[in-house]
Structures are given as C-alpha cells and as structure tokens.
C-alpha cells in the first residue's frame, strides 16, 4: 500500500517537476505538462503510452485504462493497491512520456552513469543525490569542489547528509567547497 506522500516523493525526485492542483486533485507536471495526479478517492492517475498502460493493467488487476473523451491516455489504480516499487516505476514512465525528449534523455544518461564507473565515488552518497549531481553536469569531486555547499543543497535530491559526505571526501583529498 502506498500513500500520497510516497507518490509526491517519487514525482518530485524527477527533474523539473512541479506540484499543483488540477480540478481539485493533487497533480504533478513537468514543464507544464501533467503526468500524474491523485483523485479525492485515492486513485493515482498516470499518463502513459499505450504499451506501458497495457502492461500496467495486466500487472495490476484493480487498475484500469485512463481515457479522456474516449481516447486512451494512461492508467488509473487505487494507491492502496500498488506497492512503492511499482509506483516509482510507473511515475518514472509517466514522467518520461510527458517530459521533453532532451530532458528525459538527460535523466536516462545520468542514471546510466550512476550505475557505471563514470560516477565513481559519487555513488556513495545515494542514488537521488548522485542522479541530481549528474543531471547538473557534476561527475567528479573536482567539479563538486567548484560549487558551494548551498548550491549543492539547492539541487533536488541532494540533502545535508550527501553534502556532509561529499565535504568529508573533499577534505580527505585536500579540497573544499567553493565559498
């Protein structure tokens, strides 16, 4: 069972997402294009391509196709009927479907880098922080040293713990954050 808070965390962890309301529902958009919302009765609605929506319907029997004016546009399922891992994957798929292609490609590249040797030491700080740094073009400790701690904290996904860990690593190598 998932909650609106978990949906919020998954959606806001993606680049350029804004939370708002749409017809009284909590909703999430990337560059003004809605991709996820929650109805007042607890149904999460996700804009998905047809193939992804069909897979979601097959995997979640309590879910259904989401249609607007007779045209299929995604998938709807009660939040209580979906686990967090599946919700995260569907939110990402919905975001990628609605985000500008360049932005989606940037995140895909960052995720690939976070799983490979490019990120190197940065992966120690956790996936959300690593992804945020990579999306910002920061791929090594020298580039981290070129930023202030406040700049890093301003990146969505980078928290105080990640900044503390990065600061420790910088100091071990005789570096520090930019002032």
From TrEMBL:
Pfam families: YjbR (PF04237). This is MmcQ/YjbR family DNA-binding protein. It comes from Streptomyces mesophilus.
